[in-house]
Write a structure and sequence with these properties.
Number of strands: 8
Structural class: alpha+beta
Strand content: 25-35%
Oligomer: single chain
Shape: globular
Order of helices and strands: EEEHEEHEEE
Number of helices: 2
Distance between the termini: 35 Å
Strand order of the largest sheet: 1-2-3-4-6-5
Largest sheet: 6 strands, mixed
Length: 168
C-alpha cells in the first residue's frame, strides 16, 4: 500500500512484479513482489530420492532468486528498494545470502513475536518476508492471521527519511 503514483516496471520474470512509487513528497522508491517456487514436501526421510528431491528443490529456489536479483540490477543502488513476498524458504536459509548486502531482512530490525507466516493456522515457518535497502528505518513488523489466505499477512511500518537537498 502506497500513497502516491504507482507505475509498473516491466520485468522478464514470472517470479517478480516491480513498480516505481512516486510519493507525494517527491521521493521515489521501487517495490517488488516476489513468489519463488514452492518447496518439495516429502517426509520419506529414509529414501535417497527424498534427499535428492530436497537438494534439487533448493537449487531451483537459488536459481529463481538469482533470476529475481538479475531483474533488480536495473534498479540503481541509490534508489530505495523494498522486496517482499513468498520466498518459500524459511528465515535464515542460505538462499537469502544472495540478497545481501543490498537488502536486509526487516524482521531482524523490528520484528515482534514469532513471525511465522506458514501456515495461517499453525505458522511454524517465516517464508513470507520483507527485505529492504538501507534507505529505510523499520519501526515495526508483525504477522497477523488472515481470512482469505493459507499464509499469515506481514505488516511492516517503515520510515523513508527525506533526501537532503542542501549542498555542503
Amino acid at each position: 500500500i502506497a500513497a502516491g503514483a504507482v507505475e509498473a516496471i516491466p520485468v522478464n520474470s514470472p517470479l517478480l512484479q516491480l513498480a516505481r512509487v512516486r510519493l507525494f513528497t517527491g521521493q521515489s522508491l521501487v517495490v517488488g513482489s516476489v513468489r519463488l517456487p514452492p518447496p518439495s514436501i516429502r517426509t520419506d526421510l529414509w529414501s535417497p530420492a527424498c534427499w535428492q528431491s530436497h537438494a534439487a528443490d533448493r537449487l531451483d529456489r537459488r536459481q529463481a532468486l538469482h533470476e529475481v536479483i538479475k531483474s533488480l540490477a536495473s534498479v540503481s543502488a541509490e534508489t530505495p528498494l523494498i522486496l517482499a513476498g513468498d520466498f518459500n524458504a524459511p528465515a535464515g536459509d542460505a538462499v537469502f545470502r544472495l540478497l545481501r548486502p543490498r537488502l536486509s531482512d526487516a524482521f531482524m530490525s523490528a520484528g515482534v513475536g514469532w513471525g511465522g507466516t506458514a501456515h495461517n493456522d499453525f505458522p511454524i515457518m517465516r517464508i513470507d518476508q520483507i527485505w529492504l535497502s538501507d534507505h529505510f528505518q523499520v519501526t515495526a513488523l508483525v504477522t497477523r492471521k488472515t481470512a482469505y489466505s493459507d499464509h499469515r499477512m506481514v505488516i511492516c511500518d517503515v520510515i523513508l527519511p527525506p533526501i537532503s537537498t542542501s549542498k555542503p
